[in-house]
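lol ok so funny story. i was supposed to be doing the assay writeup but got distracted and ended up predicting the structure for this chain instead. priorities right. anyway since i did it might as well share w the group, maybe its usefull for someone
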Amino acid sequence: MASIQPVSHAKPGLRAPDRRGHFPARLTLESGLEFDGYGFGAVGAVAGEVVFNTGMSGYVESLTDPSYRGQLLALTYPLVGNYGVPAPRAPGTIDGPYESSRIQASGMIVQNYVPQYSHAAATRSLGDWLTAEGVPAIGGIDTRTLTRHLREHGTMRGWIVPLEGGDEVAETDMTAVIADVSPDEVVSYGFGEPNILLIDVGAKDNIVRSLLSRKVSVTRAGIRSNLRELARRADAIVISNGPGDPKDAGPLIGELRALMADFHNPIFGICLGHQLLALAAGADSYKLDYGHRGVNQPVQDLLTRRCYMTSQNHGYAIRDESLPENWEPWFVNLNDGTNEGIRCVTRPFFSVQFHPEAAPGPSDTAFLFDEFLRRVRATRRG
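and the output, tada:
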């Protein structure tokens, strides 16, 4: 009987993965620092902005978060993969824990990859999932040293490359990432009232799930939709999270500015949506040295003085001193004093830099959806 040979995913000139799915690989940073390790997941070379996330869990949610589009995601927790990956969700659904329909990060960096998973909901390993979606990853990296380097020198580009044989490096145009992740079709969810227009510039699906759990209907539309026409039929607007530099979205910022001039119902921005709302109002944004990515970022509400632990994933922030008349800071980051939210004092427009929908992360600020909908219903009555 002919023996059954294992399938090799190696490119010509590359060593085939060993029995654990590992092959020699290297992470090179723009600064010249190099780390040798082992590749797992897809075999190939990839480039991207290297960012780190300090969460102890949640790699399924993070990898599928569109805010990571085009980035190489380094996880600081030293063991990754031990609880595996659940079955793929059915087409057309938005079931968790996935935050989109695909892996959005360009690559993954970990210290110790654990292929032997153990979890009741798991059906495959992290490496198998990455391989199936064509995403390279590298393990055996001193992520503590890597994180310290990024904190000292700032976020920078990096390359994950197999050590044997050549390969074309996959690149992502970071000036076009919002267009990449924003949907072409308008999709409606739920049958309740009020109706919320979600402007999707890379929305996590848990924003939709959070709204639907509060018995409203959601119209989800991308930047190529007729947003002004959809806004006329909506009771309120949510501007979602997403990837990239908000200043690269100039046409969208102009459209939001025009929409805000005529819209008198509540508008709620989240993460990138917060930055876009601020820029449309006339404020300014800037790039943080290494960003805020994790599930333990403390913020303070400047109105109530209450503090909350939040989930965050962003590399840019709004300058407090650039806020125009009738706008004021709402939340502040207690680690570095950066802006975490703004509000208009004359219109029902407000936004936060963190993620009230979490996933992964604490649900301390989920009440902001309730506050938003309270204002929406009050506007409908009044």
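The mean pLDDT is 93. The chain has two domains: 23-172, 176-381.
back to the writeup now i swear
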